[in-house]
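Technical note accompanying the year-one report. For the benefit of new consortium partners, we illustrate the data format agreed upon in the data management plan: each record pairs a sequence with a C-alpha cell string. No post-processing was applied to the example shown here.
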Amino acid sequence: MTSRPGSKYFNRDLSWLSFNERVLQEAKDRENPLYERIKFFAIFSSNLDEFYRVRVASLRAVSNLRIKDEKKIEETRRLLRKILKKVVKLQEEFGKEFREVIIPGLNEQGIFIESADTLTDDDYLYLLEKYSPFMAQNVKPQIMQAGGIKTFLVNKALYLFSSLVRRGGSPDQARRKFVLTEIPGTLPRFIELPSGMDKFRYIMSDDLVRSFISEFFPAYTVEGSWSVKMTRDAELYIDDEFTGNLAEKIKKALAKRGTGEPARLLYDKTLPQPYAKFLRKSLRLRKDDLVEGGRYHNFMDFFSFPNPRSPELENPADQKISIPGIDNAADIFEALQKEDFLLYYPYNSFDYTIRLLTEAAVNPAIKKISVTLYRVANRSHVINALAEAAANGKEVNAFVEVKARFDEESNFSSTSLLERSGVKVYYSIPGIKVHSKLCLIEGEKDNAPYNFTYLATGNFNEKTADIYTDFALMTADKKMAVEAKRVFRYLFDGTKPVSFEKLCVSPFSLQTSLIGLINDEIARAANGEDTEIILKLNGLEEKKLIKQLYKASQAGVKIKLIIRGICCLIPGVRGLSENIEVISILDKYLEHARVYFFRAGGEEKVYLSSADIMNRNIYRRVEVAFPVENENIRRLIIAIIRQQLDDNVKARIINQKQTNEYAAGNGAIKVRSQTEVVNLLKS
C-alpha cells in the first residue's frame, strides 16, 4: 500500500482504508457485545461515506482536469482504481458478516429485521392501514426515460430503482417502465411490526416503500426494486477567502453543498447490468461513478437501531472517576492556585470543564474569558456558560471556526445565541482553520493578576467527550497564560506572535519545535545515551517530520508510535526505519488524544496537543501543543501511554504490508488498555 514500489511512504488514502478495515475488524470481533458490533458497522459505513464525499471527490476532480501533467492524472486514476478495489473487498466482507453473523445473532435474541419478501399478510395489512395516507402524500415515484430530463438525486438520500412490467404483456423493453422513488427522510428507518411474546420485529423504511410500489402502479407487476444512493462532493468551493465577508461566503457555499458533483452512485449489486446501464445514462453518470453495494445503504442509521433488551447486548456503562481535588473544593479557581488538574475523558466527567466555565461566569474576580470553539454539542452547556458570563457583565470573546467540516451549520447556530447574549464572536481566518482547544480566563484578585488556562486535545463538546479519549489540563501557570494570550491576540486582531517559550503553535513554531526535540534525541544517541520517542496521534502524514523520524531511527533512537488512523510512515525497513514500531488501537472509545514524549536524557518531556502530524495541522491550522510540567501528571500520562504500548487485545501492528495483525502478548496476561487505564486513574 505504498505510493509506488520503493517508496518511503504509505499512500495516505490507502492507509485510511486500512484504518477503516480496522473498524470493520471491531465489527467482526465476536468478543464485542452484539450491539457494539452493530455500532462499528455504522461507524464503518459513516467513515466510508465521508471518505467518498471528501477524498475521492477531490481525487476525481484531479483525474478530470484538462492539464498537461498526464503523469499526475494517470497516477490519480491508478490510485482511484486501487481505492475501488479495496472498497469493494471491504464491502463484501461487511455484507457477508452482517448477513451471516449479525442477523442470526439478532434472531437468537428474538430480534428480527423483516424484508418486503418475508412480510405476512397480516403484516402487510397492518402497514397498509397505518402508512397508506403517509405514502399517498409523501412518496412520489418518478418514471424515468432514456434521454429525458436529467433526474437530480439528493445527497445521501435513499432511493429505490424499480422495474415494472405491464400485466398481461411480455417483459420486453418496450413494455417495461423504470421508476425512481425517493424514500422520505421523515420515515423512521426502523419501523416496529406487531410481535408476539418476547419477540421483536422491525422492517426498514426501504422495505416499507418497496412493499408499496405496486400500489402506485396497479396495471403493472413489479419485476424488482433495488436500492441506490448518491454521494456528492462535500467541498465548500469559495473562490476568494481573503476579501469580503468570509462567514457570509461560507453560509452561501453551505446552501450549495447538496448540489456538489457526484462522488459515487452506490447501488445494489443484484441490479441487472442492462438496468444499471439505463440508470447510469439517465442520470448522466460515467461508468466509474457507479459502485456496487448491498441491498441496503446508509448503514450509519444503525447507530439508532432499537435495542429492546437494553442494556443487555451492549458494553456496560463505565462509572466516571472523580477528581477529589476539584470535588472537595468550594472554589475551583482557589484549588487551581494550589495545583494543576488533568482531565482524561471519558473516564473523568466533562462536567469538570462545565464547572470551570460556570464558576467563571459568576466569580466576581473573573473579568474576561477567551475561548476557541471548533465543534460544539447541540444544546451545549459550554455555550450556555459563556452566554451567562456575558450576561453577567464579563468580557467574553469566542473564536468560532465555521469551516469545521460538517459542523459548519451547527457552529453558526451556536454563534447566534452567543451574539444575542453579548459575546464578541470572531469567525474563521482566511486560508487557515483554527483547530486549537484553548480557553483563557483572566481576572484580578488582591491587586494581582488572577489568570487560568485550559488547554486540551479535544473539543469543548460534552457529547463527544463521552466517546472520545482526550486530555485537558487546567492550570494557573503564569507563563502559560501569557502565551495563551498571544495566541488569542493573533486570532482576534491578526497580531502574529513573536515567540513562544512553552507553547508550540502551528503554523508558527510547532514543526520546528518537534524537529528540535527529535534532533536532541539524535544527538544523545550519538553520545551513546539511552534515547526514546513516543508519539500518540490520530494521523501521521507530513513528510518533513517523517524524514526526521527516519533519520532518528537510523541514528539508533528507539521510536514507538501509536497511530489510530492514517500512517504514511513505513516502519521496520532495514536501513530506514528498523527502530520504529507502530501500533493502532481501536476499542469502545475513539482514541483521540495527541501525546508527544521524548526521553530527553532522563528528563522525560511530555507535550499534549490538538495537532496530529498531518500537512493540514502543520501548515494550514492554528494548533497548540503544551508541555506537561507537573511531575505527578506527567508520570500519569507516561504510564497511560506505556500501558497502551503493552495492549495485546485491541492493538494492531502496522507493518510494511498493512495486514492489521493483532499484537500478541508474550505472556498469558491480557492487557486491554482502555480497561486497565481505570485502575491507573483511580490510583
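Partners are asked to follow this layout when depositing records. The first strand starts at residue 111 and ends at 114.
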